[in-house]
Amino acid sequence: MFQRAFIRRGLTFAALLAAAVTPSLARAQGTLVVYCGVDEAWCRAMTTTYEKQTGVHVDMTRQSAGEIYARLRAEKDNPRGDIWWGGTGDPHLQAADEGLTEEYKSAALPQLRDWAQRQAERAKYRTVGIYLGALGFGYNKEELARRKLAAPACWADLIKPEFKGEVQMADPNSSGTAWTALATIVQLMGEDKAFDYLKKLNGNINEYTKAGAAPAQAAGKGETLVGIAFQHDVIDVAKRGFPVQVVSPCEGTGYEIGSMSLIKGARHMDEAKKFYDWALTPDAQKIGAANGSYQMPSNNATPIPPEAPDLSKIKLIEYDFAKFGSSAERRRLLARWSTEVKNQGR
Amino acid sequence: MSDAVIFRGVSKRYGQFAAVDVIDFTIAKGTLVTLLGPSGCGKTTTLRLVAGLEHASSGRIEIGGKDVTNLSAAERDVSMVFQSYALFPHMTVLENACYGLRASGIARGRAEAMAAEKLALVGLEGLERRLPSQLSGGQQQRVAVARAIVLEPKVLLFDEPLSNLDAKLRRHVREEIRGLQQQLGLTVVYVTHDQQEALAVSDRIIVMNAGRIAQDGTPRELYEAPRNRFVADFIGDANLLPATLRRTGATEAEVRIGTLSLTLPHRGVADGAVLVAVQPHSVRLGAAGEGLAGTVAKAAYLGSHREYEVALPGLAHELFVVAPVAQPLAAGEAVGVAFDPAGLAVVPEG
Amino acid sequence: MTRLWLLLGAVGLVLLPWYGLETPAASVLGLRAEAAPALFAGRWWLWPLVVPLGMAFAGWLVPAGVAGLAWMAGQGLVIGLRGWGISWLGLAGAAPAQAAMGWGAAAFALACLMWIAIGLARRGWCRGDVFVLGALLLITGLIALFVAWPVLSILSSAVRDNAGAFTPGALPDKLFNRAIWGLDCLGGGRGCGVAWNTLAQALVVGVLATLLGLAFALVAVRTQLPLKPLVRVLSLLPVITPPFVIGLALILLFGRVGVVTNFLANSFDIPRTRWIYGMPGITIAQLLAFTPIAFLVLLGVLEGVAPSLEEAASTLRAGRWQVFRTVTWPLIRPGLANAFLISFIESLADFANPLMIGGNFNVLSTDIFFAVVGAAHDQSRAAVLSIVLLVFTLTAFLAQRAWIGGRSYTTVTGKGDAGLSAPLPLGLKAACLGVVVPWLVLTVVVYGIILGGGFVKTFGRDYTPTLDYFLTAFSIDRGVGGWFLSGSGWRSFITTMQLAAIATPVTAFLGLLTAWLLSRQDFAGKWAFEFATMMSFAIPGTVVGISYILAFNVPPVELTGTGLIIIISFVFRNMPVGIRAGLANLAQIDRSLDEASMTLRAGTARTLRLVLVPILRPAIVTAMVYGFVRAVTTVSAVIFLVSGEYNLATVYIVGRADVGEYGVALVYSAVLIVTMAAVLVGISAMVGRQRIGRRGTLPAAELATT
Lengths: 346, 350, 706
What we know:
The structure holds three protein chains of three kinds. Chain B is built from eight helices and 20 strands.
């Protein structure tokens, strides 16, 4: 009868729809849930390469380091992720500090550079360094020339009145990059002076973005004149043909140690450890440069990409990861920044 | 048990408003009973109470000797023909007719045979595969009837079944319904607001007004002996004239209408001011000076008969009169008015 | 039938795994401790559930159901994953622990509900109709669990500090915070509180959207321009457009290096500014999104003004302006109020456009988001902000319903009203056209950018055509295991389609069932039931998202990180589509059809299945399509709920746009829009051919306003 035909048609339609939306994936050899804290393209390249090489099905979510940290906290009673790969080191340290991540010593540990091993030591081997990137900023060359302004070279230049409404940085509440910037300024100037500086800088900021890499992109496109970001992010934008110049601030600058941690209580711990070991190999670490991420890789055997900022020409500060990686200090400084700087308006 | 439907003190209230206000009646098996009244009088609600589409707020309803007060429509042995016919638009004529049988759990083949038989009975042979939208109004109506009678219900309900048909068809269909009812010996409850229709088809008529029963009787009783002003007014085009009554015997009374004095059955009405219901065809118009003095106010020729409005200055009333064609009168003419006692009934005032 | 439900209760208790929502087979085969059925899980506090089961078998259905549900809820709340769930009870000793309820619990709860329904029906409730009572209890139960309980969780979270301690004393401080209610912007210098920002934004958008919608409606109805079909097509676009894409396109047009800005700067030396970021940008984006809704509302109202009234006025010597001012305007005034309130509510709830183009102009919906996802992870603050937003939207929603909901303000009689509408006063006509034409151009340009912008190298700088972004998102590659979808967008795209496809029939089913209960049944407490179902319309998506996180992150009901929670949010967010479609269509179907079926011995369920469902078929399909499209394009609620395994297209696009990868974001949006348009056109073509006639389609306005 009429309605039966309708039901039959409906079922056929549903079946077709289901067939259409089911991925025609070859049945995976296993599953791994990766929380990825670096640039999307790099995350993607890492996971697809791993999938291709091993047949393991990788579920990857890309989020900023701060968001992943927040997620780990939220899920701590019932973890969903297996491994947290990439993203600035502080939240990794914090997570280690709070016991959200699992201790693991990879066989590859001795092959790593000093700073990467030190990062692991600091976290009692609950994390490990995978790359190093120095903080800095980028400015749009065309815009600068059009306005006939002197190129900024130091942190101090960014609070000059001619840059009013022309500086962009991420919100340290949501971005690990911006947190590194905040910690760097505090370490360079001392806390009170640093907040004086940040309040003045606040007057020149046009937007606190959510993502750490966004200011570099915006500077490249000319949406802002200056964007505070990691230097490798700025270089990536420049490599894609945008008129942006990277600057390593004259006073010195902080840096991040991009890290990797196993999530405590991971449902696929064995798979996660295999990925962990693989991610420390030179082969895996080369993927970054191939996908526009020019950080310094942590394995001694990995070739340093020619585009990477020359560390010998950058004045790196003695970044106190122990202090600025701790949850308490972070909460205190963020709260102070939120009330004294961000909520002051401009 | 010869009563198919019994209502005992049944009410249906919506908040403060009583749509049906404590009514009692019985309907004998194999009869056609009409619920008649103006719109909003509660007749349709009463019908829906029988069907189980509404549930009584108080009182008790029996169908076929069984208390059905709390049963749902699907559990009662009744079926209904709706004013709009309510044919399922997505089913064919045959599927519509089969519906109730299939719902009662009868196998498809047997249900279709039974339905086809009833469709033939109402003259719809050959149209089984059509959709309702491909039928005329009269045919749709027959499908609705066939769909209802195929279940051989204890009571068959009609809710204004003729109101969507044109005037010519109406008379024809109502005769068919009456014929079918008598042929199959069905018990039918029939709702209408058209007194002609009611008089034509009914064994008994229940006249309703404002949620109560105004009168319950045969068509003839209602027409010739209305119990109150409402019924007298509603049935026929009766004129209501003021009069005074004085009992003169066990059943007889002297009734004075203006200067006229008549002897009529008092029908239990007390002495004093009363009304007299005068059927339009029982007025005799004669030469001026005989009977009540009147003047023709309006005159109309309708082919089969003439209609007049006659002013009665003595009573401050106008009289509606139906007269034979052979007696032409013009507007303004003075006449004498007399009555045929057979067309008169005493009605209590108010 | 009673036996069936008794059996289900027993199965839930004895056979199905009590804990965990993995597929029952998987958890049973896994032989995990939690996978055991309730009675064998070694949890003594589950054993008393045998008592209600016994009572049910003994025939005491209502007490059994109530007791079963009460004990389930009680033990679930008291005994949590890590011990005592309610600290203030002061329970001491080694705390027992349990995971979240699973299939067994769900089956048992459903059985309990049905016992109550059967028991009440036997006592003569709802005319003794088990089906009606069962449907009523099922929907009420679902609404209680998935609407009321999350909202209560927000309230409870607002009186706790971030560590979960109960601190009601801090609430006034949090609620009347300067960051929310500050009025400093009036004095200059600092920004105003986020609550005022939100209200001001909604007010501006409400007024402007109404005026624009009126201009469009006047042009469509009262001029000879062939704009009507065009405007109607454009008014459907927002339905299939992911909401934030408009903001994105505006940045590409009016950003500091946007196309228009470049042109103005290069040709006229107008300085580049960032004016678009903030209130102006949000306003334009929201106007593009909401004006069509206002237009559809006002179109209906204007078409309802009987021309004879205006003709009467002009025969009484009134000029064009006088006719408009004294007759037309007063007649459409309630319609204007309605359009205003709808746009106002939409603006309050809008999340994606402020996120995309808001710059530093914060509104409540984005602040709620940042309170949760930021490193601060301040659920308590998010809860407080949610309460403020909830109060705003509910007030506006109730005002709209109370004031306008039931009022009929047009002069439609259903009879043809011959006559010609009064021509517009010339000045008004010019003003309308002056607004409408540029706006149409803007709309077309915006959609042009959305559809084409992802296929050039860098929109605004380099217009070399490229497929790079498309391939990034949707390439297919070959690896060890065979072909696989290597594009970055595939996973979220497929997940989105799957989850939406699963949610859609459930949405339509629950929505139409609710509509049927509301329109065809009378029962005690109908008013409250209607209010509860309508309430779920009014809760902004952001609030739904945060409330789901708060309510379903830990046992007794733990759903975060699953696909199920996304499906559930789709269902309860989009149920209004089904309800409205159902109500509109049921109103057109003569009640005597159901009654005829009932008098022909068919029960309620059979009547629904054989009579109403076939007749409502076009409405059902249309409701399903719109439910599907809305599920696919929604952002606000699901951005809180996505996980590594279940990421959604819109959330992915927002993420791309957020780091400035506009190319991928635009390509992906274009793919979504084209897919949704294909679904819409395809299905309506399919349904259109098979329609029975005379039943109308679902009016777009009906859907747009839900």
